[in-house]
Design a protein that fits this description.
Elements lengths: L3 E4 L2 H12 L4 E3 L6 E5 L3 H11 L8 E3 L15 H10 L4 E6 L14 E5 L4 H10 L3 E2 L14 H8 L5 E4 L10 E4 L6 E4 L5 H8 L3 E2 L23 E5 L4 H13 L4 E5 L1 H7 L4 E3 L4 H18 L2 E5 L7 H12 L2
Parallel strand pairs: 1-8, 2-8, 4-6, 5-9, 10-11, 12-15, 13-14, 13-15
Antiparallel strand pairs: 2-3, 3-7, 4-7, 5-6, 9-10
Helix pairs in contact: 1-4, 9-10
Length: 329
Amino acid sequence: MDTKVLKIDENSLALSKEIIERGGAVAIPTETVYGLGANAFDTAAVERIFEIKGRPNDNPLIVHIHKDYDISTLVEDIPEYAKLLARAFLPGPLTMVYKSKGTVSKAVSCGLNTLAIRIPAHEGAQRFLKFVNLPIAAPSANVSKHVSPTTAEHVFADLNGKVELILDGGKSVGGIESTVLDCTGSTPVVLRSGLITREMIAKVAGECGEYVYKDGMRAISPGMKYKHYSPNCRTCLFNFDELDKAVKLYNYERANGVNAYFLCDDETAQKAKVEYVLNLGKDENEVAANLYSKLREGEKKSDLIIAVAPEKQDGVMVGVMNRLSKACR
């Protein structure tokens, strides 16, 4: 299969619609990461996503819709707090889980009676979604368990020959996947942390819980289960207070001919004083935006990535640590 990478214009949108309507998959940009999208009503198309990625079929997908799509055709009751959150944060990097009406394919939610819905803020994603005017089931556009893609080039590296079209919308500015929020109960519960933090949600909704996944439990949200976000090289992860141990390992590995790199924020890099660094940036938003691109850079440059967790671990860093711990487990 010849994989085309095209900027978003009327011609590429027309091609994307034609592919989607005949049951194919298209890689699309969002403000978080690139997604691999297919018609959520079409079971064969949805199953094809799992096949392309090599994704386990018990790992639910998120449905993406444009901002004017009538969500009531897809889900049951929408709580008042969910309406407040939608007004505050959507379009944006927030996925909200509702009781499903069962109108989309059961393959989307892997048999669950819920449906995860997101309205991305990325202009190119909105143009695509408006053009096809269908709910689009879309996990990240990468090989399952590999580092999530934040550029069209990342998608091409993973899925060349597996998809017909990659819509190039530039670098994803958010960098980590959306926050996933359970809106099926009396209060919202964070299922996966992201750029919209628990504190931000609680400020609007009045309160917000946090779901704790334990091994062996059924995944009710993407990103809960399995190793994720992993580069194709050796990795290890140290806490911030283990910086001395990380530097000692770095020096030992370099002295023994191993091409080791540090992965850390700017403050930690200055304290570590090592030569080969994958610098994630100075603040939490930079760290989130750069995490996946630096992991992909690291797998190309190094034999071993020695990651050091940031000292600050609240706010957006909760989502960063969720990804970092899965990438380097």
